[in-house]
Amino acid sequence: MTLNRAKELHSKSVTALVLAGGAGRRMNGQDKGLIKWQSKPLIAHIIDRLPENIEQILISCNRNINQYQAYANTVSDELANYQGPLAGIYAALQLITSEQVLVLPCDSPYPPKDLLCKLSKQLSIDNADACYAYDGDRGQYLFALLKTELKTSLGTYLKEGGRSVNQWYQQLNCTQANFSGQANNFINFNQLSDLPAQQQDF
């Protein structure tokens, strides 16, 4: 596990964790979070839409670390060879001292502006340990609010060879928040051709 730039993270109410540690295979190996669109990288679009009450931002990345550090503190996976988003979440959970972490992917530049509010409300209502977004059609598992105490559970799951986010959630006291009618906010760009010519206002 590597903490870059910041040697110590201070306790915050909620940490935002942006996952940017993938290999970008469907982007011809390009680092998706740093692909420029509308004159700025995708990572910048996401950070700009984070709620104001986020007190700490952390980016999970395994390359181009210096570039990501221009936006926030960074953390790198413990597991080699791009083991998936859970590896990035696990590495971050070893360092985060806030009670909760808001997880978002780097390739969806329109996260709902009320994402944290809705996830937090549903987490509290259901007295759950994890809550992910449901867009009215399917679960958006990488838009989630997790209690940081889940790091023990996640560590065990990874050691057993687990990699599926959904399957890990099924082992937890997990719930979902309804974002029906906001599906456009979860559009992710897996290929360069997916990027729209104009920025939308969702």
Number of helices: 6
- For the record, the count of structural domains works out to 1
CATH-defined architecture:
Alpha-Beta Complex
The largest beta-sheet arranges its strands as: 1-6-5-2-7-9-8-10
Quick one: how many beta strands?
A: 10
CATH homologous superfamily assignment: Spore Coat Polysaccharide Biosynthesis Protein SpsA, Chain A
Q: Could you describe the largest sheet, including whether it forms a barrel?
A: 8 strands, mixed
Shape: globular
Structural class: alpha/beta
CA-based gyration radius: 16 Å
CATH names the topology as Spore Coat Polysaccharide Biosynthesis Protein SpsA, Chain A
Fraction of residues in helix:
10-25%
Give the overall pLDDT as a whole number.
Answer: 86
- Helix-strand pattern: EEEEHEHEHEHEEHHE
Calculate the terminal CA-CA distance, rounded to whole Å. 36 Å
What percentage of the residues does DSSP assign to strands (E)? 15-25%
The level 1 CATH classification is: Alpha Beta
Annotate the secondary structure layout.
Blueprint: E1 2-4, E2 14-20, E3 36-37, E4 40-41, H1 42-48, E5 56-61, H2 65-68, E6 73-76, H3 85-93, E7 100-105, H4 115-125, E8 130-134, E9 139-147, H5 151-159, H6 165-170, E10 174-178
Parallel strand pairs: 2-5, 2-7, 5-6, 8-10
Antiparallel strand pairs: 1-6, 3-4, 7-9, 8-9
Helix pairs in contact: 3-5
